[in-house]
Amino acid sequence: MKKRKEFTGTVVSIKMKDTIVVSVERMKKHPLYRKAIRRTRHFVAHVEGDMTVAEGDYVKIAEIPPVSKTKHFILIGKVQK
Known about the structure:
Blueprint: E1 6-13, E2 19-29, E3 36-46, E4 58-63, E5 71-78
Parallel strand pairs: 3-5
Antiparallel strand pairs: 1-2, 1-4, 2-3, 4-5
């Protein structure tokens, strides 16, 4: 069985019903100059039932089968910084 992808990131938007947008940041080395470059990607995640989050919270999300056209992740929970 394949392990599902998990990411941690910051909540950017909570404007939609049962949906949040999470910004995940990663560091990558430049192939020629070897300098660390910061890369950011936004993921749309589904929020189950009574879980409440606010913008700026540090959360963990996991990959699931598609819920809609853009939602492929689910909120696992908040992470303490």
